[in-house]
Design a protein that fits this description.
The chain is built from three helices and nine strands, in the order αββββαβαββββ. By secondary structure, it is an alpha+beta fold. The longest helix is centred in the first third of the chain and has 18 residues. Pfam families: LXN.
Length: 213
């Protein structure tokens, strides 16, 4: 059993939240950790370190309620190139974003020219309301990057969207090419990362490519 304030528990929780953000986030939902309730670590011989976590999450657009979640995060021994194995179970219902998703999709599809923006949030921490869905999609995309690139000794956090450009496609998906700044809290390094996310209101999101700039 680890105290919830334990640094390694907090790092494992960041991986679990990143993973869930990628799976269940979108332009109308941004999941973040409200509290880490319990944490336990198991050292499995010849396999790796496994963390069992009980989390409370909230949607940044709906902070009046929260959902509970259990997660298992396994850091495999050996290769740094292997992403942690994550399993997450959400208890309770997340607010529906169907209508907001469709409205955002229709708005972007109807633009005369492709959307381009930078510095979200700005130097004062402000996100213009019309760019909030773009920011939340960056959260989702960075959730994937955090999950894929975390080790037991790192803790990543999305600091800013440096640049985003919509790319017109021949299919139904929306495509956004991002350059995001990820802050690694342990080393205090800020890393620019290129990540492309495809999104559709029925199919959800997927990261098609990512790499450190």
């Amino acid at each position: 059993e680890l105290p919830p304030s334990h640094l390694s528990a907090a790092r494992a929780a960041a991986v679990a939240v990143g993973y869930l953000r990628y799976l269940r986030g979108g332009p109308g939902r941004g999941l973040e950790l409200r509290a880490l309730r319990r944490a336990r670590r198991q050292d499995i011989d010849d396999v790796g370190h496994k963390y069992y976590l009980e989390l409370e999450l909230e949607d940044v657009l709906d902070t009046d309620r929260s959902v509970s979640c259990t997660a298992e995060v396994l850091y495999p021994l050996g290769s740094k190139a292997t992403a942690p194995h994550v399993q997450v179970t959400v208890q309770g219902e997340l607010r529906s974003t169907e209508q907001a998703d469709q409205e955002f999709y229709n708005r972007i599809r109807s633009l005369e020219t492709e959307l381009v923006a930078e510095n979200i949030p700005d130097s004062h921490g402000n996100v213009p309301p019309e760019l909030e869905p773009i920011h939340l999609l960056a959260w989702l995309a960075s959730g994937y990057v955090i999950w894929q690139n975390s080790t037991e000794n790192t803790k990543f956090h999305l600091a800013q969207v440096k640049h985003v450009k919509q790319v017109k496609r021949s299919d139904e998906d929306l495509q956004f090419d991002y350059v995001v700044l990820l802050h690694e809290m342990v080393s205090q390094e800020v890393m620019p990362w290129e990540v492309t996310v495809l999104w559709h209101p029925q199919r959800g999101a997927r990261v098609s490519r990512h790499g450190r700039q």
